[in-house]
Design brief:
The chain has 338 residues and is of the alpha/beta class. The protein has helices at 5-12, 16-23, 30-43, 49-56, 72-87, 101-113, 131-135, 158-170, 187-206, 223-234, 248-260, 278-282, 294-309, and strands at residues 61-66, 91-96, 118-121, 140-143, 152-156, 177-181, 216-218, 242-245, 270-274, 288-291, 319-322, 325-327. It is elongated. It starts with a helix and ends in an 11-residue tail after the last strand.
Length: 338
């Protein structure tokens, strides 16, 4: 005989209504949620999603709209999203916009036409919401980048992370610190870049270090701009003692440029990367990096969306920022030990 919701309720020692609420994305007490999830695993219970969908007007599908699946950071996030959404009893439909308004409109319309219950997305870079966003009642949660208009959003705290990176360098005797930013990028990406730049400037101010315009290099979060940014630094009369690069692709370009010019890290310049990707752990020397809390970003985005799907719009719009972690490795020289 097939396992039923009654069996799950008995196994978890909770009411049938509590199990039903959990299965439909509603809020249940944490201790009950854990018991229900354990009972579902132990009983190998698979709810009849088709029947539930007809009853509650749900498809149990969540749309995931991202910018580019080839990027290591977003590819990693996408895999985590699919796993966690599946854990919550939903299916994922993935679409991409490649930071294009036209593709974003098309992809968003596709997800809406598939009647997804909600959408989690990386903003594509616009001062105004897409027309599809304005006209749809489907809940939306932005992640990684913050929209310039009110909506639910989840991201890491880039400003505090870069502040900590500057502080890490200052405590090791560095005063002439450069930064490669993405402030020339599109609106949504530029918000992240400016947020990270603000952490850099605030740290310099707090440690009474004058901000030097020539040490702030604008890029567009691409490999080429990382390479070009280092080229600009190498043209200065005096090379900075350290550089912070605020995006993974710019990190790749910057390291390639240093290698081409045979500039030793950390012998001639110390280096800190934003995003702790595998390259940072295998490059010699291993790169000191800012690690974003991807697991918290993923789970909080999904949980917030499910909260909206259940009809709970308390504290809307909700903006969640999670702290990053600075992973100290071998790419920063301690100038006090020279």
């Amino acid at each position: 005989m097939a396992t039923t919701i009654i069996d799950v309720a008995q196994k978890a020692q909770v009411s049938i209504s509590t199990v039903s609420k959990y299965l439909n994305g509603g809020n249940v007490r944490d201790q009950n949620r854990k018991k229900i999830e354990k009972a579902i695993r132990d009983l190998n219970y698979h709810p009849n999603r088709a029947a539930q969908g007809l009853k509650g007007n749900h498809t149990f599908q969540i749309g995931l709209l991202i910018n580019n699946l080839t990027m290591p950071y977003t590819a990693n996030l996408t895999e985590q999203f699919v796993d966690y959404i599946d854990e919550k009893g939903y299916h994922t439909i993935i679409a991409s916009h490649h930071d294009s308004k036209e593709q974003a409109e098309k992809a968003l319309s596709l997800l809406i036409n598939r009647q997804v219950d909600g959408i989690i997305y990386i903003p594509f870079g616009s001062k105004k919401p897409l027309s599809s966003m304005i006209n749809t009642p489907i809940p939306l949660v932005a992640f990684d980048r913050i929209e310039p208009y009110p909506c639910d959003a989840v991201s890491s705290n880039g400003a505090t992370a870069v502040y900590q990176a500057v502080e890490h360098l200052v405590h090791r005797g560095h005063r002439r610190i450069a930064i490669l930013t993405g402030c020339e990028s599109q609106t949504a990406v530029r918000f992240n870049a400016q947020n990270r730049l603000s952490g850099y400037l605030r740290a310099l101010e707090d440690y009474m270090i004058p901000a030097e315009k020539e040490l702030i290099i604008d890029g567009d979060f691409t490999t080429d701009s990382g390479y070009a940014g280092v080229e600009k630094l190498l043209q200065l009369d005096h090379l900075p003692t350290a550089v912070i690069v605020t995006n993974y692709y710019m990190v790749v370009g910057a390291l390639r440029c240093f290698n081409m010019h045979r500039i030793r890290i950390p012998g001639e310049i110390s280096f800190i990367a934003f995003d702790d990707m595998p390259l940072n752990r295998v490059f010699q020397p291993r790169i000191t990096s800012i690690r974003q809390p991807t697991s918290k970003i993923v789970k909080s985005s999904v949980d917030l969306l499910l909260k909206r799907i259940s009809g709970d719009y308390q504290s809307y719009p909700e903006i969640l920022h999670f702290p990053c972690e600075l992973i100290s490795r071998n790419s920063v020289k301690n100038l006090y030990q020279i």
